[in-house]
Automatic annotation (TrEMBL):
Organism of provenance: Methylophaga sulfidovorans
Gene for this chain: glnE
Single Gene Ontology MF annotation: ligase activity
E.C. number: 2.7.7.89, 2.7.7.42
Protein name (record): Bifunctional glutamine synthetase adenylyltransferase/adenylyl-removing enzyme
Annotated segments matching region Adenylyl removase: 1-434
Length: 938
């Protein structure tokens, strides 16, 4: 059609000297009656537009801003303002439509230009109207005399920077503080002032004049809708959203963007609204809310017979936006990058996080591009706000050709395929997971059933003692919190409880497992979104039951911290234990949503991260995915990462107050003049699930001077405060518990010693005052974080102390005596049970033997000083000839066996005792080598 199109005469004349424009004109003008007629009506403005060469080039936001500024220059009346704004709108619309239809701009540019046009119109119009109004009524100020400005929130497509050719603009007006005007003819309240200003702004943009309008303005998204005040203060907004805000308003507020106002006010508003929109826990209740919203829309669409609506109809633009926004509402509170507005950016993030497959995201993005370009072509014809496919043949052909197709049928096949793909993804996401389930769980309401009905249902689930299980369920239902659930909470519990009973009935220890789950059920009733999570995710429910069946410790942790339920959503990742570098990336991403100065929230997030990472290790452990040595390595690496993050938080706080110590001018831990020496299980890379951290803090006292900040302090004071703050961050009890219990008793002089040891003092103490048991502890000591050069000096001292010449007989006696005292106090073995840690021939005996070997022989066998973990020291003893290969293998096997059983005792939430009938003959073999090396009294 476009090849036979005859250009209107004004266009022919105007384009004679612009060959590139002349070539594109048939395609553009045949597809847009609006552009064609504008050029015929506004020949003078057409000439100016062509001379500007803005049709041929991409404009920046600043270009668009300057264009309007020059057009509004010298405006003195509202009539002039209205006219100039409308001329600017026509100019920009013609330019944007031309570039779109000529295929000179992509979708991103088109949406950005339309949104920029709206932004600058709002900003510059508001500035002019504000200046005019303060001349009449004075300057609005708060009680402290600070000038107040109105903030315009752009909602919907404007907020996201995704405006279409004929979009309404959805706005909300607000201002920071109450007060009154100063300097006017008579004082007005700030509310009165801004309501007048808001009305003027709406009129300037929305009123229909001989020149048309600028934007249709929709103010119905404001608090209380059309019945609410046109403008609200921050306090009024906060009160509304805390007490009255509804789910659809959370959905709408995702795209809210402050278009006007200073940066401080914008941030304050954003910080105030964020908790309403983004919850700190995973909000799976959104699925039900969006199903209801979608159902209402679908009903309206069916009622109106609008199946050809490419925005609201099945497989339309709105469904793509729904898909992105449901994930934003669920995960955005925990994942700050998901708090962005553009839908295409969000879809990419969902693929990165594996919340949607890359294939699905690719289909949705391509569909979105096609649908939005189609929408623009429909609207470009007559500048009308419509999303309906044309019904007559001529209009259909015009639309198809403007989209690059030869005919309607070929265009419609592609459009139909895209919409079908979108609808399939949308339905898959929002279809209730139990829809159509014919299982018994969907036929009974345990909240209302009679005793016999419950008993019959539970018998079908496969429990050994159904009557006892009924009693467990009744006890839950009789709890005060259960009887006082909200209507939403009761509905969610009604769905979840039968599903939980069915899932638990499938495990081998069902009768023991279900009671373990009751504290968790009680906990999640306080925040029913977690009940929604389990209802919406059958796989998460299955993993929950599997893990709680395997470990009471895991069920206890989940009951304490239901936020861990989030980790059950993807069984593929639940049992994956990342490498240290990947874990570090995850930690930094996890903390990225917290403001650096929000110490309380940082502490909570650190604790939450530890719990999450530990859950992954425990899940991999109980299912046999992770071997014993891997458990110790993973938990030790996790502790090191968290220690480093705690150091960084404490360091940045101290440096901000006091400046840097002389040794450094940066925040690199390897140059900080401070190191952390880890002893015990962390030092030996054998950390367990509930292990303390045995730490010693050391600073390099070879440096001299003070810190270089505005409030300088002595180095001893600086590093002591650094250590104190770290211990505070680690030990403080928060809603997430503690991060780690820290034991500092191994520092020089123990509990009476300095909190932070000068290096020279540490070295001197180890050389002159330390007891043999302290040198034993030094065998498993290693630097885990801190200054690289200082760590090397500490390592040199350690190796020098351990390799000191010793009287082997005296050493053996000292080690025997210490071991005997420990066993007398701590060994819980009896004739039936063996204490895996303290029993004769158990874990501690092997550790003491290794420590004795290092202290006795490392002077001549320096290879014993390389590692701090028992297994590799045993390997070195075999290589050196101090142990026969079979002996070394036996000790290593015994040590692994004991520790593995001890770990599982912890996971089973029971003492580290084992029936002597289940023991192998390891204890006797260990005792034989002990007696060979150290004599009797093992």
């Amino acid at each position: 059609m476009s090849s036979a199109f005859v250009l209107p005469e004004p266009w022919q004349n105007a384009l004679k000297t612009y060959p590139d424009l002349l070539k594109a004109a048939p395609n553009v003008l045949s597809a847009s009656d609006y552009v064609s007629q504008w050029g015929q009506r506004q020949e003078s403005m057409l000439g100016q537009l062509l001379e500007s060469q803005q049709l041929q080039k991409k404009l920046s936001l600043d270009d668009i801003r300057q264009q309007l500024k020059s057009m509004l220059d010298g405006v003195t009346t509202e009539e002039q303002l209205h006219q100039k704004l409308r001329h600017f709108r026509q100019w920009m619309m013609v330019r944007i439509i031309w570039r779109d239809l000529a295929n000179w701009s992509d979708l991103a540019e088109t949406m950005a230009d339309l949104s920029a046009m709206a932004d600058v119109c709002i900003q510059q119009t508001l500035n002019i109207l504000y200046d005019w109004q303060i001349e009449l009524n004075g300057i609005p100020r708060d009680d402290d005399g600070r000038e107040q400005k109105m903030i315009v929130l752009g909602m919907g497509k404007l907020g996201a920077g995704e405006l279409n050719l004929s979009s309404d603009i959805d706005l909300i007006f607000t201002y920071p503080e109450e007060g009154e005007t100063e300097g006017g003819r008579k004082p007005l309240t700030n509310s009165e002032f801004f309501i007048r200003l808001g009305r003027k702004l709406v009129q300037a943009l929305d009123n229909q004049t001989v020149d048309g309008f600028v934007f249709r303005v929709d103010m119905r998204l404001r608090p209380f809708g059309e019945s609410g005040a046109l403008v609200s203060s921050f306090d009024a907004m906060e009160e509304y959203y805390q007490t009255q805000g509804r789910e659809w308003e959370r959905y709408a507020m995702i795209k809210a963007r402050a278009i006007t106002g200073n940066e401080a006010d914008k941030k304050a508003l954003s910080d105030m609204l964020r908790p309403f929109v983004y919850r700190r826990y995973l909000d799976y209740g959104m699925f039900d809310s969006l199903r209801e919203m979608k159902s209402m829309i679908a009903g309206q669409m069916h009622h109106r017979g609008m199946d050809d609506n490419i925005k609201l109809g099945a497989g339309g633009i709105r469904e793509i936006e729904f898909i992105g926004q449901v994930f934003q509402l669920i995960y955005g509170g925990r994942d700050r990058p998901l708090q962005q507005r553009p839908i295409l950016t969000i879809l990419d993030l969902l693929a990165d996080r594996k919340l949607l497959s890359a294939y699905a995201v690719d289909q949705l993005k391509r569909a979105y591009d096609f649908l939005r370009r189609t929408e623009h072509r429909i609207q470009a014809w007559a500048d009308q706000q419509t999303h309906i496919l044309p019904g007559d043949d001529e209009s259909r052909l015009r639309l198809a050709q403007s989209m690059g197709f030869d005919d309607w049928s070929s265009f419609f096949v592609v459009l139909r395929d895209y919409r079908q793909q979108v609808q399939e993804h949308f339905d898959q996401l929002l279809t209730a997971p139990q829809a159509g389930d014919e299982g018994a769980g969907m036929k009974i309401s345990l909240l209302n059933a009679q005793h016999e009905e419950k008993l019959s249902f539970i018998e079908q689930c496969g429990y050994d003692d159904p009557a006892e299980i009924v009693a467990v369920v009744d006890k839950l239902l009789d709890l005060h919190i259960c009887r006082n659930l909200s209507q939403t909470g009761r509905q969610r519990l009604e769905k979840l409880l039968p599903l939980l009973l069915q899932a638990t009935g499938n495990v081998d220890n069902a009768d023991a497992c279900l009671p373990r789950l009751m504290p968790l059920m009680e906990s999640i009733m306080r925040r029913s979104a977690y009940m929604a999570l389990l209802v919406e995710n059958p796989m998460a429910l299955s993993q929950l039951v599997k893990l709680c069946s395997a470990s009471p410790l895991i069920s206890t942790q989940l009951a304490k911290y239901p936020v861990l339920l989030d980790e059950l959503l993807d069984p593929r990742s639940l049992y994956e234990v990342p490498e240290k570098q990947e874990l570090k990336i995850q930690l930094l991403q996890f903390l990225s949503s917290v403001d650096a100065d929000d110490l309380e929230q940082l502490m909570n997030r650190l604790r939450e991260f530890r719990q999450i990472a530990t859950l992954h290790v425990a899940a991999a452990d109980v299912t046999g995915v992770l071997p014993l040595m891997g458990v110790g390595d993973q938990l030790s690496e996790l502790a090191e990462l968290l220690l480093e993050q705690v150091w960084r938080i404490a360091w940045e706080h101290l440096v901000a107050k006091h400046g840097y110590p002389p040794i450094t001018d940066n925040d690199d831990p390897q140059q900080c003049g401070f190191t952390i020496l880890a002893y015990g299980k962390l030092g030996g890379l054998e950390l367990g699930y509930g292990s303390d951290l045995d730490l010693v803090f050391i600073f390099d006292d070879a440096q001299e001077g003070m810190t270089n900040g505005e409030r300088p302090v002595d180095l001893m004071v600086f590093y002591t405060r650094l250590a104190q703050r770290m211990i505070h961050l680690l030990n403080t009890v928060t809603p997430g518990g503690i991060l780690y219990e820290v034991d500092m008793r191994l520092r020089p002089s123990g509990g009476s010693g300095l909190l932070v040891s000068p290096f020279s003092g540490f070295a001197d103490y180890q050389q002159k005052e330390a007891w043999t048991w302290e040198h034993q502890a030094l065998v498993r000591a290693r630097n885990v974080i801190g200054d690289h050069q200082l760590a090397q000096k500490v390592t040199d001292v350690r190796q020098g102390i351990l390799a000191r010449a010793r009287d082997e007989a005296m050493l053996a006696e000292q080690v025997r005596d210490m071991r005997a005292k420990m066993r007398q106090q701590l060994d819980k073995s009896d004739s039936q049970l063996f204490d895996l840690k303290q029993g004769k021939g158990g874990i501690t005996d092997i550790e003491f033997m290794v420590q004795y070997a290092v202290l006795a022989w490392s002077r001549d066998l320096p290879e014993l000083l390389i590692y701090t973990d028992n297994i590799r020291i045993l390997e070195a003893l075999v290589v050196s000839g101090k142990l026969k290969p079979a002996e070394g293998q036996m000790l290593a096997d015994a040590y692994r066996y004991y520790r593995n059983e001890a770990n599982h005792c912890v996971l089973q939430d029971r003492p580290t005792l084992m029936s002597v009938t289940q023991l192998q003959d390891f204890p006797q073999q260990v005792v034989q080598i002990w007696q060979c090396w150290l004599g009797e009294n093992a």
